[in-house]
Amino acid sequence: MNQITFIRIFRIVWLAVKIFLQVTFFQRRNRGNWSPLVEKRWNDMITKQAKEYKNLALKLGGLMIKLGQFLSTRADIMPPTFLAELEGLTDRVPSVPRKSIVSVLEQEWNTPHTNYLDQLSDSAVASASIGEVYKAVLKNGMEVAVKVQRPGTDRILRADFKAIRIVIWMAEKFTPFAKQIDFKLLYVEMTETIGAELNFLKELQNGRAFADRFDSMEGVRIPLYFDEFTTRRVLVMEWIEGARITDLAFIEKNELDRHEISERLFILFLEQVLYGGQFHADPHGGNILLEPDGGIVLIDFGMIGTITQKDSQAVLRAAEGVIFKNYDQVLDSLEELRFLLPQADRKILGDAISRLVTAYESNELSQMDSFVVERLLNDMQEIVRTQPVQLPAEFAFFGRAASIFVGVLHVLDPNVDLLALARPRILEWASSQKEGKGLFGKEDVLRWVLNATGPLRVLPQKVINYLEEPERMRHYLENRDGREREHRRNLQSRMFAGIFTILSFSGMSISIWFWNEPYLWVSSVFFVGSLWVYRSIK
């Protein structure tokens, strides 16, 4: 039943409608009365919604799982309890019968699969919502991995994208999320990034591009791909014996150095950012293998994102600002990357970044039972949600990839110091940029001098800011709460007017069908009135 297009669309849209209505009614009912008890009820409701989404995603598969994985990284728009519930959502689904996979193979190859393969495993070694992987042996005796698209995947994802378009329209009209994210650009990014997974020829091209790009990097390799056996729905690549990079038992058994592996892995990811171009958009533990000798193997290039050279340099300037504690440069870079809207309070954001970096460098963040750290992280999430901070659509999958990757690093080495690892690499990158230009430019010299002397220059101002912070925060909170209340009232009024418009229009249609004139007049008046109210509320 879940494979039927209409049913999939209905279940996805209905869940979204339920969530939107529950949030609206809860906020309306508790307006001006936000106590600890109300906060607990709110968290319970959000957790229940997240569980309902997770259960539906696991039943439907397809785009719902990937969308849930994406949402689990969006602390800027999703409540913490929702994020926590979706954090473990993985794209693992039961495999389809082997004969269905063989049927796809033979359709794509237009010949019996035994003409190409000596052996094909009895069951899938990996199964996800789009493809399944089987171990096989070619006629020349070489072991290969054969990735085959699940039957009906095209149709399922088309239905899911239709449902998401409807949900996005509703979110734009009836929720405050449109203030923080451009849904239209996000949808384009989703279709380009996730839609590319449907074409295995594209994955082969991506894999080849990564192999050429990192060919000289020691201890890192990409599988060989076979053009002659690869089609839009079948991908054949070299079989590599290895374990998930997060398999700590495998690391211990082979006496590998976890810290050295995490350093090498971090450099691999950083290289993708430093010099622009493509980056792996789904770097979870199952897509990064570890060989017995410690070699890192990157696989599955279906989800690939792109970061331009210009954006790459802005990211590095932001990192440079963090290293030298020049937070104005960090904010300038975030504005250049389109993360900050013009009305953002730079002072509050700069102070927030400063506190976070200080806490990280002093190892406070490793003491998860610390009250100070808990307050700090809560403050960060609150500022991200209340300030006009947005995640540009083209960075949606970059943010998700970075979040997943950092999680993998912390499994490998819980004490990994990302700033310490990044600092020499970023300085090396900056030096190479200067050498590429020839001599240091005046602007570069000035920026580096200002960065290097930054801590001394800003010390007096930091003392003043510290003394003024309580008053500044009070004014900010008062203004923010006033804007939020006004926006919430308008949003709720618009939503109720929209609901009455739909109901009254339905009443008009029924009265015309049965020609009930009194009912027609009443429903017409309600329709015109609610439509006028809906259009007049901004």
TrEMBL record:
Residues 119-440 form the Protein kinase domain. The keyword Zinc-finger does not apply. Keywords: Kinase, Membrane, Transferase, Transmembrane, Transmembrane helix. Pfam families: ABC1 (PF03109). CDD domains: ABC1_ADCK3-like (cd05121). InterPro entries: ABC1_dom, Kinase-like_dom_sf, Prot_kinase_dom, UbiB_kinase. It comes from the Bacteria. GO terms for molecular function: kinase activity. The chain crosses the membrane at residues 6-26, 495-514, 520-537. The keyword Transmembrane helix applies. Belongs to the protein kinase superfamily. ADCK protein kinase family. This is AarF/ABC1/UbiB kinase family protein. It comes from Planococcus wigleyi.
